[in-house]
Design a protein that fits this description.
heterotrimer, A mainly alpha (about 250), B alpha/beta (about 575), C mainly alpha (about 400), B: alpha/beta, eight-stranded mixed sheet, C: about 400 residues, mainly alpha, two-stranded antiparallel ribbon
């Protein structure tokens, strides 16, 4: 009954990782599941915010890995005359929490064998969870940099870091454990996520990402504004959990 | 050993749109009905509360409301000569899970198919000749016509409170609507949504080159609405969180906002959540379904006996359930025989991103807020010179400006680094994307069957998808994409545009559309189809299969409107004829 | 002549009823619904009328009685006389006093015929064997004999007396409100011994951490400002263009008032609109609004209150309650408004109005200070004059809500 063990594991995950409310309905539903019980839904408590929105959420990266991610973030969306970049926006914190959480652990992915390389069209076929892939890739890249430059990636000058990142992006650098392009694609995706996700997840700190582009956050009513063509929207960005952006200092 | 439950008149597998509709109709007819839903119960409050639902990372990126591949997924290959491998994480399409199904997270883009879409083969052959169609193309006519479905489209639209402008009222073309649509008996229940800045620019540009723009019929209520069941919807406030999100203010049509308030009050209706149906049970003759077996959250098996079994799951899961239950003859692509799994089809989307001088505030939007032209859809133009059939609509959506997934930068700008950052800043408020939303025909080689190797969490074989884009459809998409470029060029105050064309092989990674169709198709005889015109199984008359698995091929429109209408059509036949005399309706 | 017409109107259902008479049973069912008996006498998900529902009171927990016809645990063995004495005098079959959580101070106003009809109906419901758990009252209230003292202070048995100077509608409404409906049981302030404060009836009362709103003319936006049709629509469907029934009133509408006939709902409205205006009208209408509401306005926008209630507080007629001009918002005591923001609420769903619209809970997201600022804004915006809400107001409701869960 291997399938039963997989099912119970998945359900345990649902029951423990899902917000309390869902957990409750889940238990009620599985216990009695009568229509009378289900159609009465007295609770109005919204699902809790995910664990990765808590500042004490578990972390994944060790010190050297953290330096690697800091350096990569600083190059992928750099600090420049347009303002702070991904490092200043806390994106490394975001990535650290994500890798420790359900995403990093591939908790909802199909991770049964047999394993084969597959075509580009068939997508991700690695045995590694995202967290494992990051760890292998960061080790591999640092090995590469140590060999080429006698320095870890984080200690390279920005121009060399850009060259290494470009090499990964194009697949010109061959990593022994993971495909370089797969790693770079995921890294770029996660940096973008961290720069633009609600600041409650640790990135987009002080709304740096949203302020750069002019996104006001999860506001819900533009009935009065939508037909005011060409007119800038004036309310400051707001977070679901952390309130609105503080006014700029004059 | 499965625990045997008390028999019911009808068991519904899944509890999304089709189950809500059929459940409402069958309970009105006095039947005792139970729906089995593999996911959780969900309601506007608390699950879609505006304190937390607008979380792009959680819902759109990490996909909190969708199927979890570790429970069930499928394997995929481009052709029969490849080895299929599991879709390990969601990508190309996103089947919903939980009460309300995909009706919770759809955009609300609500269409009727055109009259010729129901006669795809005979119409094409008549107009362009039999040799015009490739040999491997297996499209076929529906066994029912647009006129047959019109009253049910109407019923569906008045259930949902669709916001739109008629283009053809009883044959009279109407200013401001879609002049290519089939004749409708009356206006939409609600006027169109307010127009976004990008819609205004598109409208002007399309008109300037002689096209016929109109507002997309929207399942986002432009005004407060009381539907045909007495259920009220609020007005859309243009928050920009429709697709992949539940609606926080009761303004997007969903089972929760249109049917469930009435259905859940009925004593003769019940449902179970976390109840995954693993097979349809048959009697010894193989001609009668006796009910279904499901597994609950603790892994316990139950048998739910029923006089009628109605598959209301997502199209792919309907087909999967037929295959694992060994109902009907599985399709064999080599010999082109059998029916279950035949004519799987999909849709194609290419994009033309337009960059404007002025800000358009993309974050103010709604799932179906957009201006559309249908001039190049279906058979609205002469395909003779082009060598392909089918078409696409071109739409300028303003569905929201969720920044992780909805930022557009010119293709010639870097994808990271300082240049990327600059492009983000310059373009986010000043860009929108046109979609070329194209149909896909069905082909001998594109099909569904069971995978020989991989299994789901319940021990059943995964379904295997064999699919690739074919020349007819790629040619069509290229042609209509070029027409979208014509519009982009005509946009006043445009700083440029990007073409994101659809070329090459189909891949399972990039999100494209959750409009998977076919596999349990509708037809006029048992040799070419799984179900008859009333969605009744040819092989097992007390088994009905609802949803887009019925589509013999996939026209260039979003499927939900036709899924709703077809379900009402089937419900009518069941309640007016089948219940009086259970047996084959055709 | 006039008097007899009124008498007939009040007892409009009276016919020559005998036991088992269908019309009598139907009338009994109607009165049981109008009296919302099911609400207390049915436990959550328990069998109907089998009692055993815990009723929290300031004096301890009282368990409702099984009123099904089961002879051993219900009222199967009760004679019509026993039943009438319970409703009319608050005395049980064994001669002991009933606790006034059972609203006999209202039921005493029912006519004998109506009480018989109620009994006739209850005799037809499914008999359920369900022993009522013993009450958990604080000493010395466990001594039922003390209740005779309470009765001598606060209770006078006697059927409703029609007022010949008022219309037939007023009298029918008054009969329903003051007897079966027992509206003032919740909508009135109570004294320390749990009796309605004399002279303050209908001025709003505290219960289950909700404030049952004032029904007199004291409150801005209150029912005295509603039309007869608006009140009747609210009672029968749970909503009108101003607001929706939420909190405990949602259940009252679902189980009770939605079953009223249109005539009776309008009769009740007629009576309620004619309630005396209460003592403190003047004081109320000049609530102090002097406070900076900038932060409250920001919170209103940032927490997407406008998703449903709109930026201008008008809500959507028949769908989302208007905050502008709302009685709940402008109550002198903000407890209900605070409770709504903290815990959210599900509105009544009725056959006529099947939506179970709900407001989500914001208590997990907003601090006491946030909610105070938000509500102070809402109570002073758009012409509202409800007065300042303090952090400690919110704190005390939050504490009560937390302990009751």
């Amino acid at each position: 009954m291997a399938w039963m063990m997989r099912l119970l594991r998945a359900n345990f995950r649902t029951a423990t990782l899902m917000p309390t409310l869902s957990r409750r309905t889940f238990l009620i539903a599985s216990a009695s599941a009568s229509a009378a019980a289900c159609s009465k839904i007295p609770n109005t408590l919204p699902p809790e915010y995910p664990e990765q929105t808590r500042s004490d959420a578990p972390l994944f990266l060790d010190a050297s890995e953290r330096r690697f991610i800091n350096a990569a973030c600083a190059r992928i969306i750099p600090k420049d005359d347009l303002g702070p970049g991904a490092l200043e926006a806390g994106v490394p914190d975001f990535i650290d929490r994500q890798l420790a959480g359900p995403f990093g652990q591939a908790s909802t992915w199909y991770m049964q064998g047999p394993w084969a390389k597959g075509s580009e069209q068939q997508g991700y076929q690695l045995k590694f969870t995202p967290a494992q892939m990051y760890r292998h890739a960061m080790n591999n890249v640092d090995d590469y940099c140590n060999k080429q430059f006698k320095k870890a990636f984080a200690d390279l000058p920005p121009a060399d870091q850009d060259n290494v990142l470009t090499g990964l992006e194009k697949g010109d650098i061959d990593l022994p454990d993971v495909p370089a392009k797969t790693f770079f694609t995921m890294l770029l995706q996660n940096v973008t996520e961290g720069f633009f996700a609600d600041p409650m997840y640790g990135g987009n700190r002080d709304f740096i990402g949203w302020k750069l582009i002019g996104f006001p956050g999860p506001r819900y009513n533009y009935v009065e504004e939508i037909e005011q063509y060409g007119k800038p929207y004036t309310l400051p960005p707001v977070s679901l959990k952390l309130g609105r952006a503080k006014p700029e200092k004059a | 050993m499965a625990t045997r439950l008390k028999p019911v008149d009808a068991v519904l597998v899944g509890f999304g749109w089709t189950a809500a509709i059929i459940g409402q109709e069958l309970t009105d007819a006095g039947l005792q009905v139970v729906a089995l839903e593999r996911g959780n119960f969900r309601d506007t409050v608390p699950d879609f509360s505006p304190t937390q639902i607008q979380d792009e990372l959680r819902y759109a990126v990490r996909k909190a409301t969708f199927e979890e591949p570790d429970r069930e997924t499928l394997t995929f290959r481009n052709s029969t000569s490849d080895t299929a491998l599991p879709m390990r994480q969601l990508g190309s399409f996103l089947p919903g899970v939980g009460v309300g199904g995909a009706g919770v997270h759809w955009n609300g883009q609500n269409w009727r198919f055109m009259p010729t879409d129901f006669k795809m083969r005979s119409h094409s052959e008549q107009r362009y000749g039999k040799k015009f169609l490739p040999d491997d193309m297996t499209i076929q006519d529906w066994p029912l016509s647009y006129d047959d479905l019109e009253p049910y489209y109407d019923k569906w639209e008045y259930l949902c409170g669709i916001s739109g402008k008629a283009g053809n009222l009883n044959g009279q073309i109407q200013e401001g609507g879609n002049p290519f649509e089939g004749p409708r008996k009356r206006e939409f229940p609600l006027p169109p949504l307010k127009r976004s800045a990008s819609a205004m620019k598109f409208d002007e540009a399309a008109k300037s080159i002689g096209l016929h723009p109109f507002p997309c019929p929207a399942g986002n209520a432009s005004q407060p609405y009381t539907n045909t069941l007495g259920v009220k919807l609020g007005q859309c406030t243009y928050c920009g969180y429709c697709e992949w999100f539940g609606c926080a203010n009761y303004s997007k049509a969903s089972p929760q906002t249109t049917i469930l308030p009435v259905l859940l009050r009925k004593d003769n209706f019940s449902y179970k959540t976390n109840a995954t149906v693993t097979r349809v049970n048959m009697d010894s003759t193989g001609k009668k379904a006796t009910g279904v077996t499901y597994v609950d959250a603790q892994g316990r098996e139950f048998e739910q006996p029923a006089e009628m079994v109605i598959l209301c799951a997502y199209s792919l899961h309907n087909v999967h359930l037929l295959l694992v239950s060994k109902i009907g003859k599985p399709y064999d692509a080599e010999s082109n025989t059998g029916a279950v799994g035949k004519n799987y089809a999909y849709q194609m989307s290419a994009y033309v991103d337009v960059f404007f001088d002025e800000i358009i505030n993309p974050f103010m939007g709604a799932g179906a807020l957009g201006q559309v032209v249908d001039d190049f859809n279906g058979d609205n133009f002469d395909h003779g010179p082009h060598g392909f059939i089918g078409g696409a609509y071109i739409s300028m959506w303003q569905t929201g400006g969720r920044p992780i997934l909805q930022h557009y930068t010119p293709t010639d700008t870097p994808k990271w680094g300082g240049g990327f950052k600059k492009a983000l800043k310059e373009n986010y408020l000043r860009s929108a994307s046109m979609q070329i939303h194209g149909g896909i025909m069905s082909y001998k080689q594109n099909h569904l069957d069971l995978d020989p190797t991989y299994r789901d969490i319940y021990g059943n074989p995964l379904m295997r998808l064999t699919f690739d884009f074919q020349k007819n459809d790629l040619d069509m998409e290229k042609y209509v994409t070029d027409r979208a470029v014509d519009i982009a060029k005509a946009v006043k105050g445009n700083r440029g545009y990007n073409v994101r064309a659809r070329t090459g092989h189909y891949g399972i990674v990039e999100y494209q559309t959750t409009h998977n169709t076919g596999g349990a198709i509708i037809g006029d005889n048992p040799s070419n189809s799984v179900i008859n015109k009333y969605c009744q199984s040819w092989d097992v008359p007390n088994l009905f299969v609802l949803g887009a698995s019925a589509f013999p091929q996939n026209p260039g429109y979003n499927p939900t409107g036709t899924v709703g209408a077809l379900t009402y059509f089937a419900a009518d036949a069941i309640t007016s004829r089948y219940l009086k005399n259970p047996g084959a309706l055709v | 002549m006039k008097r007899s017409a009124i008498f007939l109107a009040v007892l409009s259902f009276v016919t020559c009823a005998h036991a088992g008479d269908f019309a009598q049973i139907e009338r009994g069912k109607y009165l049981v619904q109008a009296g919302d008996c099911e609400s207390c006498h049915t436990d959550k998900n328990g069998p109907r009328f089998a009692g055993a529902r815990a009723i929290p009171t300031p004096f301890g927990t009282i368990y409702s009685r099984n009123i099904t016809p089961d002879p051993a645990t219900g009222i199967g063995g009760w004679s019509d006389e026993d039943f009438y004495r319970a409703l009319h005098e608050g005395i049980s079959r064994d001669g002991s006093h009933l606790y006034p959580a059972f609203p006999y101070p209202w039921y005493t106003k029912l006519t004998r015929d109506d009480v018989n009809a109620i009994k006739a109906y209850l005799d037809t419901v499914d008999a359920v064997r369900e022993q009522t758990p013993p009450n958990k009252l604080h000493w010395p209230l466990t001594w039922r004999s003390l209740l005779s003292v309470w009765n001598s202070m606060f209770f006078k048995a006697g059927e409703w007396q029609p007022n010949p100077d008022k219309s037939a509608d007023w009298n029918r409404g008054g009969y329903l409100v003051e007897s079966a409906g027992h509206c003032s049981a919740c909508h009135s302030p109570k004294n320390l011994l749990g009796s309605v404060k004399k002279g303050d009836a209908f001025e709003g009362g505290d219960g289950e951490n909700w404030l049952a709103p004032d029904l007199t003319g004291r409150t801005l936006g209150g029912v005295s400002e509603w039309s007869i049709d608006e009140i009747a629509q609210f009672l029968r469907t749970g909503a009108n263009n101003r607001t929706r029934a939420t909190g405990p009133m949602a259940e009252v509408v679902e189980l009770s008032t939605s079953h009223l006939t249109d005539e009776d709902a309008k009769a009740i409205a007629t009576y309620l609109k004619d309630l005396p205006n209460g003592a403190s009208t003047a004081e109320k209408k000049t609530a102090d609004n002097s406070r900076d509401t900038t932060r409250g306005h920001d919170l209103y926008l940032d927490n997407n209150c406008a998703a449903c209630h709109m930026e201008n507080g008008t809500g959507e007629a028949g769908i989302f309650p208007a905050l502008k001009g709302s009685a709940i918002v402008q109550q002198p005591d903000p407890a209900t408004a605070i409770h709504l923001v903290l815990s959210g609420s599900r509105a009544a769903a009725t056959t006529a109005n099947p939506n179970r619209f709900a407001m989500p809970a914001f208590g997990g997201k907003l601090s006491d200070d946030d909610i105070a600022a938000l509500l102070t804004y809402v109570r002073s915006a758009w012409g509202n004059r409800g007065g300042v809400v303090s952090e400690s107001n919110v704190y005390s409701v939050r504490k009560q809500v937390a302990t009751s869960q």
